[in-house]
Amino acid sequence: MIKNLLNFNNVRSALSVGIDILQIPKDSYVLVPEIICDVAVKVFIRKKIKITFYKLDKYFQPVWRELENLKTLKNKKISAILMVHFFGYPQNIRNFRKFSKKNDIYLIEDNCHSLNIPINQTILGYNGHIGIDSPRKIIKDLYSGGRLFINTKSNIITKNIPRYIPTKIQKFKKNLKKKNPKLSEYIKFSKKRPNYESPYFFSDKDNDFSIKKTDLLSLQKIRKFNFKKEIDKRYKYLLKLSKFAKKNNLEIVFKKNKNILPMHFVAITRNNSHRKKILNWGWRNKIDIVTWPSFYKEKKLSQVLLRRWNKYICIPLNQNLSDIDEKRI
Question: Kind of pairing, strands 106-110 and 264-268?
Answer without folding.
Answer: unpaired
